[in-house]
Design a protein that fits this description.
- The chain is of the alpha/beta class.
- The protein has four domains: 2-105, no CATH class; 114-294, Rossmann fold, CATH 3.40.50; 295-364, no CATH class; 366-401 and 546-622, Beta-Lactamase (2-Layer Sandwich), CATH 3.30.450.
- It contains 20 helices and 25 strands.
C-alpha cells in the first residue's frame, strides 16, 4: 500500500516548497517540489493531484494500491481510473491494476490563465518554443517556461561521480539565460523525487515531467508537452518495456481537466521534420542542447549523433556550429552513418526518417555504388566510398561517396613514401631499432620505404619521417604541402603512419594522390613488389607482403593486380590497387571499408567489383 498525505507549503529563504508525506511499506518519505517564493501562490494544497501522478507508475510497478489523504480533482480521478490505468495495465506483462482510494474534489481549480512549456533546450522543447512564441492564435501564446529536475538529471550518463550536480546547475543557468533572451519568465523547480524513489525515468518520464505541472495547477490554463514520438508510433502493447511516450496521446488526455489542457506538442511530425522546423530558429541555433552526457553537446552520445545526422540530412549543419563541433562530425561522418545504418537494422523508429533521407540522397555507405557501365549487376559491398577508373581511357567507371571524408589509413603511408622518394635523401643511412626489423639495425631511407609499403610497418614510417625532416612534426608539414600541391583539398595528415591523430581524405583526393604517385618511377617499382630483401651482416632479411590481392595462396589473390596497398584503422580499412586486364589499366580506390575481426572485406570488395566491370572476369584465387 502507498499512502499519500495532505500537501502543505513551507516558505524559507525566498523559496516556496510544497511537501507531502509518502508512506510505502511502513516507511515514510517527504516528497517535495521547490520554486521561487513568488510562484508558491500557484501550488494547490487542497488536493494531491501531482503527488498521485508521481506515485502512480511506482504503484503499478510494485503491485500496490494507493490511498490519498487529500481529495483528487474529480475529472483527473475519473480519467486515470477509467482510462489510463485499465488501458496501460491491460497491455503490459508486469503492471498491476492499482486501485485508488480518494475523495473526488468536484470544484475545478481556478488558474491564472498561463500558457507554458518545458525549456530543457532539446529539439522537442525548442519546437514548442518556436511554434508558440508568436502563434497565429493569440490564446496559445506562451507566457511562462518551466524547467525542473524531476528525473532527467539522474540518468546514468549524468550521474557519474560529481557530474549530476554540475550538469544540472549549468543547464539551469543556460535555460535561464535563454528565457531572459526571449523575454519570458522561467519557473525553476527542484524536487527530491528521483533521490528518494526508484522511478525508472527512462520508462515513465512523462508522468514525472508532468508532476510539477499538476502541482502548479493554479498557474496553467494550457501546457504544451514536447512529444518524443510522432503519433503514428502510438502503442500500448507491452508498454511496461518501452518509453511511455509511445502512449503520450492517452496520457496527456487523461491528465488534462476542464481547467488545464495538456497538449502533446509536435506529435504530428517525426524527428526529422521537427528538427527541420527549428533549423532557422535563432534561439535554437544559439541554445540547442540535446546531450545526455554533459551540459554542452558532446557530439558523441546517441542524442547528439541523431541530431547531427538530422541536420546533415537537412543541409543545416553550419546553422548550429555554435552548439556542435560540426567539423568533428564531418571528419568522422562514417561513424555517424554507420550508427544510423545500425539503427535502421534494429528498427529504431526515431532515426528511421533520417535513414530514409540519407538513402534517398544516396548517402548510405553500405549501399551499392553508382556504375556507369550498362547492364551491370553490382554486388553489395562493405565499402563506404570508392572510385574505379580506367586509366587507359581516363574514364571513371564506378563511384560512391567520392567527396565524403574518411580516415585515410593506408594513404598516409603512400604520401609518406612520395615525400621520402622526392626528398633526394633515399640513400641516407638510418640507425633503426633491432626489435622492429628482425635484427636489422641499419638501412637506407629507400629500404625503409620498401619495408613500410610492403609490410604496413608503422615504425618504418616514423623512422622515415625523422630521417627526412628531423622531426615527425616537420615531416607532417611536408606531407600536407605535397597533398595541397597535388590538389587534394579535402585531405589532412597529422602523422606519417595514419594511425595516430586526425588523418582523413576523400575518394576523390585519394584518386588524385594515386594518379600522381604512379607517375613516379621509383614509387611504381616499390608499389609493385610483393617482397623486399635486404642483405645485412652477410644474411638476407626478407620482408613479405600481407596484401591478400598479391598473395598467391589467398582466396582473394588476383594475378592481374600488379600493385596494391591497404591500411586498417579501427574497424575500417582502405585500399588502392592497380589492375591490368585486356590492355587496360584500372585504378581502384576504396575508403571506409567496414571490417570484421579480420581485414578482408577490402580485398573481397575489390575482387567482386573488378569482376563486374572487366569484359571477362578477372582470375580469382583458390
Amino acid at each position: 500500500m502507498i499512502t499519500i498525505g495532505t500537501p502543505k507549503i513551507i516558505k524559507k529563504d525566498k523559496k516556496a516548497r510544497i511537501t507531502c508525506q509518502i508512506e510505502i511499506n511502513n516507511e515514510t518519505q517527504d516528497l517535495w517540489l521547490e520554486v521561487d517564493e513568488k510562484y508558491g501562490k500557484y501550488f494547490i494544497t487542497d488536493r494531491c493531484d501531482g503527488f498521485l501522478i508521481a506515485m502512480l507508475p511506482i504503484a503499478m510497478m510494485e503491485q500496490k494500491d494507493i490511498i490519498c489523504s487529500a481529495p483528487v480533482s474529480e475529472e483527473l480521478l475519473h480519467n486515470i481510473t477509467t482510462q489510463l490505468i485499465p488501458s496501460v495495465v491491460k497491455n503490459s506483462k508486469n503492471l498491476y491494476k492499482t486501485r485508488i482510494s480518494a475523495e473526488p474534489a468536484g470544484t475545478p481549480v481556478k488558474n491564472a490563465g498561463a500558457v507554458g512549456t518545458g525549456i530543457s533546450r532539446g529539439v522537442d522543447s525548442m519546437h514548442s518554443l518556436s511554434r508558440y512564441l508568436n502563434p497565429k492564435c493569440p490564446g496559445y501564446k506562451l507566457t511562462h517556461l518551466l524547467l525542473h529536475n524531476a528525473g532527467a538529471f539522474s540518468i546514468t550518463a549524468y550521474n557519474e561521480k560529481g557530474q549530476k550536480e554540475r550538469v544540472e546547475k549549468e543547464c539551469f543557468e543556460c535555460s535561464e539565460k535563454l528565457a531572459q533572451e526571449i523575454g519570458l519568465p522561467l519557473i525553476k523547480a527542484k524536487t527530491n523525487l528521483s533521490e528518494i524513489f526508484d522511478i525508472k525515468y527512462h520508462l515513465y518520464s512523462e508522468y514525472y515531467n508532468l508532476f510539477p505541472v499538476l502541482l502548479l495547477q493554479k498557474l496553467w490554463k494550457i501546457y504544451f508537452y514536447g512529444s518524443t514520438y510522432d503519433f503514428s508510433n502510438f502503442s500500448l502493447k507491452n508498454n511496461d518495456l518501452f518509453d511511455c511516450a509511445h502512449y503520450e496521446l492517452l496520457l496527456v488526455n487523461s491528465l488534462s481537466t476542464s481547467n488545464l489542457r495538456i497538449y502533446s506538442e509536435g506529435g504530428e511530425k517525426n524527428r526529422l521534420e521537427k528538427t527541420a522546423d527549428i533549423t532557422d530558429f535563432e534561439p535554437a541555433q544559439k541554445n540547442l542542447h540535446v546531450c545526455i552526457t554533459d551540459s554542452k553537446n558532446c557530439n558523441k552520445c546517441i542524442k547528439c549523433m541523431r541530431t547531427l545526422l538530422c541536420l546533415d540530412a537537412l543541409d543545416k549543419l553550419d546553422n548550429f556550429k555554435n552548439v556542435f563541433d560540426v567539423e568533428y562530425y564531418r571528419r568522422n561522418r562514417q561513424r555517424y552513418v554507420t550508427y544510423l545504418e545500425n539503427c535502421h537494422q534494429k528498427g529504431d523508429e526515431i532515426n528511421e526518417p533520417t535513414y530514409q533521407a540519407f538513402k534517398k540522397l544516396g548517402w548510405l555507405y553500405n549501399s551499392r555504388p553508382l556504375c556507369y557501365i550498362e547492364n551491370i549487376k553490382l554486388p553489395p559491398v562493405s565499402t563506404s566510398a570508392l572510385i574505379i577508373k580506367n586509366l587507359s581511357t581516363e574514364k571513371i567507371l564506378m563511384e560512391k561517396q567520392t567527396k565524403t571524408i574518411f580516415n585515410s589509413a593506408g594513404f598516409s603511408k603512400i604520401i609518406t613514401a612520395l615525400v621520402a622518394l622526392e626528398s633526394g635523401k633515399t640513400q641516407m643511412p638510418v640507425e633503426i631499432s633491432e626489435k622492429a626489423y628482425n635484427g636489422l639495425k641499419s638501412a637506407t631511407i629507400y629500404d625503409l620505404v620498401n619495408i613500410m609499403l610492403i609490410t604496413q610497418n608503422n615504425i618504418a614510417a616514423l623512422n622515415i619521417a625523422q630521417a627526412v625532416a628531423g622531426t615527425v612534426e616537420d615531416f607532417v608539414k611536408l606531407m600536407n604541402e605535397k597533398s595541397a600541391q597535388i590538389g587534394a583539398v579535402n585531405t589532412l595528415y597529422s602523422s606519417p603512419t595514419g594511425v595516430n591523430g586526425e588523418n582523413y581524405t576523400t575518394a576523390e583526393d585519394a584518386c588524385k594522390l594515386m594518379e600522381y604517385a604512379i607517375q613516379n618511377r621509383h614509387f611504381c617499382d616499390i608499389f609493385k613488389r610483393k617482397s623486399y630483401t635486404i642483405r645485412y651482416n652477410e644474411e638476407e632479411i626478407i620482408f613479405k607482403t600481407t596484401n591478400q590481392l598479391l598473395t598467391e595462396d589467398s582466396s582473394y589473390y588476383i594475378p592481374e593486380c600488379t600493385a596494391s596497398k591497404y591500411g586498417v584503422q579501427g574497424h575500417f580499412s582502405t585500399l588502392s590497387a592497380v589492375i591490368e586486364k585486356d590492355n587496360d589499366i584500372y585504378l581502384a580506390i576504396l575508403l571506409g571499408v567496414k571490417e570484421g575481426e579480420k581485414a578482408s572485406n577490402c580485398f573481397k570488395d575489390t575482387r567482386n567489383l573488378m569482376n563486374c566491370i572487366t569484359e571477362k572476369p578477372i582470375t580469382a584465387g583458390v
